[in-house]
């Protein structure tokens, strides 16, 4: 099973979630990513090398951005999580 790591932005967002249903949706998405790291949509251009998993909950779109590194063992790094509004702009700023 791949190793899972969280960058501070993602860890902080997921830790602050109070809605148990939403927290469960993120947990399910992370489990799906652990089973198949390439299940998310591969981004192009400025965000090349990043995958994003869509999460729909309570009529709101959320995103989970992660990267997969193939070393001796696979490492999945969750970069950022949040609502889709301005998500990609924030992700580009965070990546720099």
Automatic annotation (TrEMBL):
Gene3D superfamilies: RelE-like. SUPFAM superfamilies: RelE-like. This is Plasmid stabilization system protein. The lineage of its organism: Bacteria, Bacillati, Bacillota, Clostridia, Lachnospirales.
């Amino acid at each position: 099973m791949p190793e899972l790591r969280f960058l501070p932005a993602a860890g902080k967002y997921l830790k602050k979630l109070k809605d148990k249903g939403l927290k469960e949706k993120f947990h399910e998405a992370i489990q799906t990513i652990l089973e198949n790291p390439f299940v998310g949509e591969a981004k192009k251009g400025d965000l090349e090398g990043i995958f994003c998993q869509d999460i729909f909950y309570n009529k709101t779109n959320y995103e989970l951005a992660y990267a997969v590194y193939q070393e001796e063992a696979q490492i999945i790094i969750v970069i950022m999580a949040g609502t889709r509004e301005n998500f990609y702009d924030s992700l580009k700023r965070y990546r720099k």
